[in-house]
Amino acid sequence: MAAALISIRTEGDKIEIVNQLLLPHITEYIPIDSVEEAHDAIKTMKIRGAPAIASLASLSFSQYFTRALRQNPLPDYFASPEALKAHVQPILDYLYTARPTAVNLGNATRRLTKKLEDLSAVTQDTRAIVEDLIVEGKLIADEDVGRNKAMAKWGGDWLINRVQPSSPKTLNVLTVCNTGSLATSGYGTALGLITYLHEVGQLDKAYFTQTTPYHQGSRLTALELKTLQIPNVMICDTMVGSLFQHYPIHAVAVGADRIAKNGDTANKIGTYNAAVLAARHNIPFIVVAPISTVDLDTESGAQIPIEQRPPLEACLVRGVVYPSENGKVEQAQVMITPTDLEGIYNPSFDVTPADLITAIVTEKGVAVKKDGEKTFDLTPIV
Ligand code: MRU
Asked: Which among 63, 110, 334, 354 is least buried, having the fewest CB atoms inside 10 angstroms?
């Protein structure tokens, strides 16, 4: 199988991300040299996907302090753990503000805050504290791939067991948005499950929605499935119902940006539509997301903050000039609406209630609702 795409590259304290605003036609890695540049890359969606934005925030935090340790003399905030905390916390609070819905970012900054607290309680050696914080920041990114592979196997085996396909290569799975290597540090969540089914010879085709207005499906998932040579079919977001009426779809597998304590799940806008239609057609609806996406402090979906993206983003489409003039690849952005359109609704995510979700998969296993229950008990898988 061809090498997967990589969202973040690191070498020593150097960080580069692939600019996902230019994909699939232009693959350009851009350097990230500060927490401000990481914050901007997350906010402007040069990098996106709940696990990937948490990874970049953590890596940029580690980069910042790796460079601080090289200063001679060390910066003043190394004078004491209190001074260190007073310097570190605003940086974490700032990174947390990049995007509001994906809880992974908040879990990463809270994890680093807790690490700082724990270390400061046992030593006054600020250099040692900072060295451990750097390691922790890198760990948050490094843990991702192993988790994703574990989830893919749990979810894939659960689906194979549920469907009991009569012959190999017969399972068709629909997904929404992009949840592959570009949205994580590698392999992916829901797209990881689809990749696993392909690897074990059970997948017929992967179906994916365009996922407007940012086109994570038509630009990023299309590129990943093509790169991985996984048979696939793109559909427009409006065609999910028709697809279910005319094709044997065995499951819908999606990622998540925040899963509430009862199982209500926030994910890319359009996911709820697919869940309602999947319930109408008795198609299993599977959420695949790491434990760092589960927010036990949020009782239900009603409390999940939903990011509203700039209205202009819903009026624009990015791509390349087509047909190209003498083979040149020229990035282009066009406005598809009247330039003075006023009323624009552009939430980035929606919430699928737990009663429309068949299974939730984390790296610890698969949760399903007890008979007659409308919500999940997630304790076994967190
Ligand atoms: O706005 P995006 O592209 O960051 O939204 C991404 C999604 O909704 C994904 O499904 C989710 O973050 C999981 S990515 C593994």
From this structure: 334
- C-alpha span between 293 and 103 (Å, rounded): 6
Res 133 pLDDT > 60? yes
Is a pLDDT exceeding 80 seen at residue 1?
A: no
What does the radius of gyration of the chain's CA atoms come to, in whole angstroms? 21
Q: Which of 145, 216, 237 to mutate to test the pocket of ligand 1 (most atoms within 8 A of CB)?
A: 216
Mean pLDDT of the chain: 96
**Cβ burial, residue 148 (10 Å; 0-12/13-18/19+):** buried
CA-to-CA distance for 156 and 200, rounded, in angstroms? Answer: 9
- In whole angstroms, what is the distance from residue 157 CA to residue 137 CA? 32
Cα of 129 vs centre of ligand 1, distance in Å, is 33
Distance CA 287, CA 176 (A): 11
Closest CA to 322 of 25, 83, 93, 10: 25
307-331 per-residue burial string, b: 16 or more CB within 10 A, e: under 16: eebeeeebbebebeeeeeeeeeeee
Q: DSSP states of 164-211 as a string?
A: --SSSS-EEEEE-S--SGGGSSSS-SHHHHHHHHHHTT-EEEEEEE--
Quickly list DSSP for 25-49. Answer: T---EEEE-SHHHHHHHHHTTSS-S
> How much distance in Å is there from the Cα of 183 to the middle of ligand 1?
7
* Rounded (10°) CA dihedral 116, 136, 151, 205: 120
pLDDT at 358: 98
371 is an active site residue = no
Report which secondary-structure segment, H or E, holds 276. helix 271-280
